[in-house]
Amino acid sequence: MPQSDDSDADADGEPVDTGDDGGEYSRRNFMETAAAVGAVGATGGLAGCSGDGDGGDGGDGGDGGDGGTDGTGEQDFLWWTMRGYIPAETEGIKNAAKGFEDAADANVNLSTEVITWDSIFQEWEAGVQGRSLPNVSEMAGEHAVDFGYRGAAEPLTDLFNQYDDWYDVINKWQNFQGEQWAVPWFMEVRTTHVNRNLMDEAGVDGTFETWEDIVSKGQTIMENTDLAGAWTTPGAQDTTTGQNVAAFNYQAGGKYYGYEDDQWSVEADAAGSLFTHLWVMSMREQWGTAPGGWGSIDSTSNQELFQSGEVAAAHLPTDLARSLIDPQEGVNEEYADLAEATELEPMPEGPNGESHSFMGGSVFGSFTDEVASYSAGSEISKGFVDYMTQPENLSEYFPVSAPTFMPVRSGQEEMELYTNNPTELPDSWLETRLEQAPQAVRYGVTGSGQATPFMGSLEGSTSGYSVAISAMIGNDADPKTALRNMANNIRSTINEADYVDQTLEESSSGPSLDDAPDMVQDWISGDGKPQIWNPYE
Length: 537
Prior knowledge:
Region (Disordered): 1-29, 51-74, 503-537
CATH superfamily of the largest domain: Periplasmic binding protein-like II
Protein name: Multiple sugar transport system substrate-binding protein
Number of helices: 24
Organism: Halomicrobium zhouii
Number of domains: 2
Keywords: Sugar transport, Transport
Shape: globular
Radius of gyration: 23 Å
Strand content: 5-15%
CATH topology of the largest domain: D-Maltodextrin-Binding Protein, domain 2
Pfam family, one: SBP_bac_1
């Protein structure tokens, strides 16, 4: 199964016509897989749902969730969520979901089960084999595509197409073979947390608007203070490390995958990616703005550095902002002063003129009756997904999930949270999040213009594509070798699967910075830009 956190369209979002007989991705393959999964479900028997959450009475691992079910009615309905870490958030989501019983066109007996991310993959796999999946589950877009390929999920294209205001990356996240295999629920982007008090102490005015600011203002901060770091990003083998580097890569005109004429290419070790990794390494090797011991600083350690006042700015998921202010109880006394001094800023603008930031989040995927515990039918599942993503229902739990939860389309920006902020969060924090949302990117989806069944597993096995940069930072690995090793592992993984009707050849040389995008050449030469660290000169 895929181990990630977190389309028939090209890189510019234009539809791609693959045809009904197009290789391993054909509709015939989908239907054959669906028949096989149905046969497995039929022979596996009806197994109870397991997990450490709030389940219905019909589940082996449930504790009797809201709207419990006796497992006998055709309209019994079960859905799974991973939102069990923040009690107020979980309660808000469950209350909103419970409201579907009154909103549905049919008599629905709804049960919510909370399962943690660290166990959901084995639960999904067991559910496919034992016909014990929920009707709807939270997941990532890559997972929905994988389940669609295997015949366990049903497309939600008609529901998705009712709206035309999705953010760009959201159009591609669950798009595969001309179908949308899920409906996006929420997104979460990384933003820069800036301690204005430390910036003032360093004599630095304004914000980090560009990559040049990261360098120049970062150096000023290090020269005028005793801080451990300036504008920081994790450096250990950590998912957030790779996520931030992926965003840098798109800002520099690079990508991790290409897709053209029904053929895939792996670009993780291409010249653009080499530049990006050398640019990140320059924070330590060339500009001296990274914290000491960078190779051991993961996202948690980076968050702790910010909380303790040892770095001026940290580009991280907004769990950091949540740790400073609890929207339910008011200001956390331990961080009251820091919360007052903290401002959120978008990712500084890169060479391509965009402020791309990595996107996490979740979608709603709908499982077929052949693999679900209860035969609720497609219309009820689609109705639930549509209900849970309407602004008026999102308003039931977005305020207690803010600023982490974010809209996935512009129409959702009209919910109360953004028009009449009812929380203790500064309005500017929410405004920054909305500013960042349309510029979000995600791993390989953005570069290839589509999702595929193999992306989820690769994103997990590469720790979010952080294995190369962490090897450079922590083990002084040769950048070209580290990138080539990561990329060849990706190629090998794809070749060993049955998703792609092609063989990806391993790389044994290169790349050269001469082939990097034109937009970054001034950074390589130092012509009007801060020159990057280049061990190959």
